[in-house]
Amino acid sequence: MYRIIITSLITFLTINIVLGQDSEHPGIIAEKAEKPVNIDGVLNEPIWRDVGWQSDFIQTFPTDTEKAIAETKVKVAFDDKFVYIAAILLNPEPRKKYVSTSLRRDYRGNQNDGISIVIDTFNDKTNGYIFGVNPYGVQREAMVGNGGLLSTDFNLAWDNKWYSEATIHEDHWIVEIGIPLSTLRYKDGARDWNINFYRIDSKYSEKTTWTPIPKTFNVTHTAFSRNLHFSEPLPKSGGNYSIIPYTAIASSNNSIKGIKEPLKPSFGGDAKIGIGPAMNLDLTVNPDFSQVEVDEQVTNLDRFEIFFPERRQFFLENVDLFADFGTDRIRPFFSRRIGVDRDENTGQNVQNQILYGARLSGKLNEDWRIGAMNMQTANDPLRGISGKNFTVAALQRKVFNRSNVGVMLINRETMDMEQGGLNLVNGQHNRLVGIDYNLFSKDNRWTGKFFYHKTFEEGKRQNTGTGHAQLTFTDVNLMAGLSYSNVGENYNPLVGYTPRVGYQRIAPIMSYTFFPDSKLINRHGPGFESETLWTPSLGITDELHTLNYLIRLHSYAEVTFSVNNQYTYLFFPFDPTRTGGEPLAQGTSYRYNYFGIEMKTDPRKSFSLIGTGQAGQYYNGNLANFMGTAQWRVGYTANISMNLSYSRLRLPEPQKDVDLILIGPRFDLTFTRSLFWTTFIQYNNQIDNININTRLQWRYAPVSDLFMVYTDNYFPDSFASKQRAFVMKLNYWLNL
């Protein structure tokens, strides 16, 4: 199998070299400002004189051939400390009201009016930054990895200091931005970057870009950009040193275990140290993540654990260097494994204190990127948890135009609770070595991933490797792909996310999209997805074959219908309800059919819906379920939503019938651009729990916050408290 992967790799490396070229464009010239620009949304500085503005934005939605209805003009300037960007966003008619989901930083979604700038400082058209502002001056920033191909490559959780202001006028609005050079990573003396601008306008339901982007691709794609030429070499960014100390007080009461912790203080903090022009060293001591929003619960009908994304700020800069090795459900590294361990008294996963950590990431030069991390967690004898030391190293080399090859090393060591300190337990290590090749053609039509990973543990020497090959072609109408995986029986990445091992998998995918000349429908078309899993001893163990049809409107509303056929062989007893009922027997198999639907209404409306549902057979019975969210937006100051999951399972004896309900009302109030209050309640009868979480956030200075967080869990029948906690945390971002 590995010979096949290597042969495929060489073949598609060759394909990548000969892909077509894009037509050249002169780009945009940034002149040097003679004096600092006052970021106030008023373009009265000399640098914003009439010459040098760029316009001619092109639609990428609903078409990719028409000029923008709402025209946009942009200009870039710089000095020794800042890159400045100005935008004039015109409207064909007078307009005072715009769509903004809230005043909270990091807005996202097609319904938000706004302009965003994609900046690629190393000209690799793969990694970069996004800075965006809406008409009410709300900011958003993100890091982009892997070319911005998928929504997961767009990381809004990254925060840093920069400045912007917006002003609204009768027939246009204006944005003025100042990005400190110390916030960005770039080569000293650089004369050229890559840049693109995209605007979302809710009134005309259009997305427009300065660099034309085919309508089948996301506007965040870094493959589609033009040259940003500076009139003279950029100065060194200078020292980029930040200290982010915090102080917190917290108390908790676990009524089930009878443990009450009185109000007590804690201290810690992070440091960010710029090393050279493109490297960053992140340090943390006694980190506290109490302000990180808790995961929204889901009804789990799967046999395996559920993946939740990383939200902790410390792990997020250059996150793709670590997190993008492997593929979906075969991840060698998953940072949420750090700081979470198993309570040996209850068998539940609980938070485990992180003592300290260090993380180095960035570019060595235009072709090489490096990442290294070491984290130490604490011993917790009361819960039977041994501390762990995690070491992760990644090295990535750009090849050809936009592709890259990376190698990763992971080592997890177990600490000795009896000896204490940093003593290790011999033999209780878990290590992984892997190599990945990521294919990105210049025009983004060909993408692929090829990798081989191997784990090393005491006593396990055979079948510890995993290989994968995947190739996808995307054009205006046609998308087709094929992937193959072989996961070894003893492959065990304890610091990763690989919920099952010991199988081979093949998965073709194909879809065709029509773009009709219609005032209502933007696109529609059929699709086919399939996956088959098998083992040498048992043969086929899992199948899922799906036929679907997508219809998307010009209003961003869409619906997808599907017909599914699934086959499942049980390797272990499994209760489909996950409520403690009689399990289905190990060694039994089931083939069943069901219908599915996914839908979204127009997100620009004050009231919108998004949901998925299925109905049909399920193992030896029947299932009908719906999961969705109804959202009511009150201007830009309040978002009230209701998450609902209802699953009706009807199973023959000795299994039992159940109705699983998860209800989660949520209230998100944004009083100003710096004061936010979020409260949500979750009732989940699958785990017999009511959860309340409320969080008040005051951003009293740039990237500096005061948080007050209260969490409580109750028994639904008596409303008696299971566990409650209160945290107040203050942090401050100090640039040195």
Automatic annotation (TrEMBL):
InterPro entries per UniProt: Carb-bd_dom_fam9 (IPR010502), DUF5916 (IPR045670)
DUF5916 domain ranges (all copies): 242-644
GO molecular function: carbohydrate binding; hydrolase activity, hydrolyzing O-glycosyl compounds
Keyword annotations: Hydrolase
Residue ranges of domain Carbohydrate-binding in the record: 39-201
Gene3D superfamilies xref list: 2.60.40.1190
Domain of life: Bacteria
One example of a Gene Ontology biological process annotation: carbohydrate catabolic process
Identification of the protein by name: Putative membrane associated hydrolase
Species in which this protein is naturally found: Cyclobacterium marinum (strain ATCC 25205 / DSM 745 / LMG 13164 / NCIMB 1802)
Native organism taxonomy: Bacteria, Pseudomonadati, Bacteroidota, Cytophagia, Cytophagales
